[in-house]
Design brief:
The protein is α+β, with helices and mostly antiparallel strands. Strands 1, 2, 3, 4, 5, 6, 7, 8 and 9 form a 9-stranded mixed beta sheet that branches. A hairpin with a 4-residue loop joins β8 and β9. α4 crosses α9. It starts with a helix and ends in a 20-residue tail after the last helix.
Length: about 280
């Protein structure tokens, strides 16, 4: 790294501290918060997907659940994108979106979640999706999911990123899970009939607003469901599912966070791998 790069990095850090305030106090105005944090988005792990527009950000900040299906540059399938402002702290939402064993409680149509292993910031997990369409086989997959500790630290805990990507060793891993009896919510027969997704990549970005009392949630999902589902039907279903996911996430968090995470739950890890304390109301 050159002296110029060091100086530029230092100046950017000082600039962000001045804009955002030292000690975790963010702008009262959400739009100014987004603008101040914009330079740090260069540190995101997820890249190559269509970004949200200024108009979409303003709609989300105004209270709209923004959902689109967009062309993906250089890739054959479209990307499902969703964004919503939620009156919940990022700690609450982060606890949920990284709680893969309990995805069936709040993720639409997910009926199984098994953490295969955890190494550092990376988790390997299996999920089973019950397709709500007649004559269409269910889907399942294994992903490697990780979190962005650098972005979390550099932003003063204002940007929380989690990403995932399909694990190509899924067939062998699923077979081993069945042998060990770790898939419990669906039968071996259902697993055998399910279609393995050919592409599965995406991520979450949580942006702390109003001093951490609210969160702007950004969701990106790129997938090829495999099998013989027409693209038009897959896109229509994806759009409905993203809206249901975002609306349901907020509702579940409001109603169930305290009871679910405050009563002997396994540790929840922040993006940097530290244990995230339970947020008392």
């Amino acid at each position: 790294m050159t002296m110029k790069a060091n100086v530029e990095g230092l100046l950017r850090g000082i600039f962000l501290l001045l804009l955002l305030g030292h000690g975790g106090i963010a702008f009262a105005d959400p739009w100014e918060t987004l603008e101040a944090l914009e330079p740090l988005r260069e540190e995101r792990l997820l890249s190559g997907f269509p970004p949200f527009t200024q108009a979409e950000y303003r709609r989300a900040l105004a209270g709209e659940t923004v959902v689109t299906i967009s062309e993906t540059p250089g890739r054959p399938f479209r990307t499902a994108r969703g964004m919503k402002r939620m009156a919940l702290p990022p700690q609450v939402l982060w606890s949920m979106i990284t709680d893969r064993p309990h995805f069936p409680a709040f993720m639409p149509h997910i009926v199984e979640g098994v953490v295969i292993r955890r190494i550092g910031l990376t988790v390997q997990a299996y999920h089973y999706l019950d397709i709500p369409l007649p004559f269409v086989a269910d889907r399942h997959w294994v992903v490697k999911a990780t979190t962005n500790g650098r972005l979390y630290t550099d932003s003063g805990h204002r940007l929380w990123e989690a990403v995932w990507r399909r694990d190509p060793t899924a067939p062998q891993l699923i077979e081993k899970l069945l042998e060990e009896g770790r898939i419990t919510r669906v039968s071996p027969k259902q697993v055998a009939k399910a279609v393995l997704t050919a592409e599965n990549e995406g991520g979450w970005l949580l942006v702390a607003l109003e001093g951490g009392k609210e969160t702007l949630v950004e969701y990106i999902s790129y997938s090829d469901p495999g099998g013989d589902i027409p693209q038009s039907l897959a896109q229509m279903t994806a759009k409905k599912s993203v809206r249901k996911l975002l609306d349901g996430l907020e509702a579940w968090g409001r109603k169930n966070y305290a009871a679910h995470y405050g009563n002997g739950h396994d540790p929840v890890y922040a993006p940097d791998g530290t244990i995230l304390p339970f947020l008392k109301e």
